[in-house]
Specification:
This protein is α+β, with helices and mostly antiparallel strands. It has eleven helices and twelve strands. Helix 5 runs antiparallel to helix 6, helix 5 packs parallel to helix 7 and helix 7 crosses helix 8.
Length: about 475
């Protein structure tokens, strides 16, 4: 049985009886006791029994109270020892008189050997003046003094935040030692992440600027060609479309910068919690991913349009996949067409290889699409333009079929004449179909035919050689 364990009631009663006898016999025994009657004896015995029971009850209550106090003391001792932060008691000289397990762990010393050692001995030399000032402030009674120092360890120094409070008699102080090594490492990683993010944004911005410059150069070349008006509209549409991902990226960078500033302030003041840090790192990763996606989207749009613009500006001959060229051209048109109710259906299988001039071919596609939206779909919100292609030996047949308003015989006979348009002064120049025929025949060595019925739609059929003959400029 340990010294702190409660005694059994029988032993407690025997002990009380022994103490009572000793106290009774300390004085002289009474000599004037008169004989008692039997009734008085019975009454006295009854009173003694009642008193005995009362004492037993009081003793049981005392035992219960003592047991609760011991249990509470044990719980508090466990809380003290098992606390996740270090609790250390120092005297006025800075010597350690008591520490919990976490305190011993952060100091890297067995708790049984801590008593009497100066806490400053565990602080690296460069930070000892900081700790000395802190200890002086604690014993001077300053309100909630704190400091941050680095402790010696077997590996890299351990960073800790210390908060102190003086005891009532002023002879000791209790300090709370919190290991913030992980926090400081995370802060460094966070700064590196921010620096890397800025580098990535700067790199993407440079790429974007270079792409814009290439686009401007392509536009300058196109301005000298017949397609200046069409491509001017496309460039304006593309730049309008670029505003969305660029604006999202700028907003994400601004938000991350504000959050980084706030997090840095909370780290400096020691207010940042681990959960808040992890949450912020998650936000940084999400913001970086958002910026990456939007920059990639911007770069892809510029690349697609740039390829098409360069092709049209140079009219160079090269091998290409017909489906890829059609998709690039339509992709560049989407910004200007996406708000229109009509739609385009593409049925061009990949793998139709050609050795021709993709620039003029792209201009043909643009003009025929614009012709459908400007003329064929006038007043038809449910308009559909179907673009299909099939390979027939050494030739390729491209079809542009719409369900628009169609054309009568008189319009068909004048369709490919320069400056013929049903909308002169209303958005048409009268050159679109003339340019198409010229490009098909003169540039691509092909032929074009059209079938149309008023009120039912039109079908343009373009037949091109898969490989151009000779060196065509």
């Amino acid at each position: 049985m340990t010294a702190d364990a409660p005694l059994p009631p029988s032993l407690v009663a025997a002990n009380l009886r022994r103490l009572a006898k000793e106290r009774l016999y300390m004085g002289s025994p009474p000599t004037d006791l008169a004989p008692l009657s039997s009734e008085e004896v019975l009454h006295l015995m009854h009173e003694l029994q009642v008193k005995q029971i009362e004492l037993e009850i009081q003793n049981e209550e005392l035992q219960t109270s003592q047991a609760k106090e011991r249990a509470a003391a044990l719980r508090y001792a466990e809380l003290y020892d098992l606390a996740p932060v270090g609790y250390v008691t120092l005297n006025r000289t800075g010597a350690i008189s008591q520490s919990n397990l976490a305190g011993a762990r952060v100091l890297g010393c067995d708790r049984t050997r801590l008593a009497g050692q100066r806490f400053s001995g565990f602080v690296i030399e460069a930070d000892q003046p900081v700790f000395g000032d802190f200890l002086q402030h604690v014993f001077d009674g300053q309100d909630q003094p704190s400091c941050e120092v680095r402790l010696r360890s077997a590996g890299a120094p351990c960073s800790v935040h210390i908060h102190g409070m003086r005891s009532e008699d002023g002879q000791e102080c209790r300090i709370v030692v919190t290991d913030i090594t992980l926090l400081r490492q995370s802060q460094v990683q966070l700064q590196e992440l921010n620096d890397h993010l800025e580098e990535r944004v700067a790199q993407r911005t440079l790429e974007l600027e270079q792409s814009v410059e290439r686009l401007k150069q392509s536009y300058s070349a196109l301005a000298k060609s017949e397609a200046k008006a069409t491509l001017s509209t496309l460039i304006a549409s593309v730049f309008h479309e670029l505003r969305t991902p660029v604006s999202i990226g700028k907003m994400a960078v601004s938000t991350l910068s504000d959050q980084a500033t706030e997090t840095g302030h909370r780290v400096t003041t020691g207010q940042l919690k681990r959960q808040e840090l992890l949450h912020f790192i998650g936000q940084v990763n999400e913001g970086a991913e958002l910026i990456r996606r939007n920059l990639e989207r911007t770069a892809q749009m510029l690349d697609d349009f740039g390829h098409m613009a360069v092709d049209q500006a140079s009219a160079q001959r090269r091998p290409f996949d017909l489906a890829v060229v059609v998709e690039e051209v339509l992709h560049s048109l989407r910004p200007s067409l996406k708000r229109k109710p009509q739609r385009i259906v593409v049925d061009v299988a990949p793998g139709i290889a050609m050795d021709s001039q993709p620039g003029p071919l792209g201009q043909i596609i643009i003009n025929l699409v614009n012709n459908a939206y400007l003329h064929a779909f006038d007043g038809k919100p449910d308009g559909v333009l179907t673009i299909s292609a099939r390979s027939d030996g050494d030739a390729v047949e491209l079809r542009f079929v719409d369900n628009g308003v169609g054309m009568g015989p008189e319009q068909l006979t004048k369709l490919f004449e320069p400056f013929f348009s049903t909308k002169i002064g209303g958005g048409g120049t009268g050159l679109g179909m003339s340019i198409v025929k010229n490009l098909v025949v003169e540039k691509l060595q092909g032929r074009i035919a059209v079938e149309s019925t008023l009120g039912q739609g039109s079908c343009f059929v373009i037949t091109l050689p898969r490989v151009l003959l000779g060196n065509v400029g």
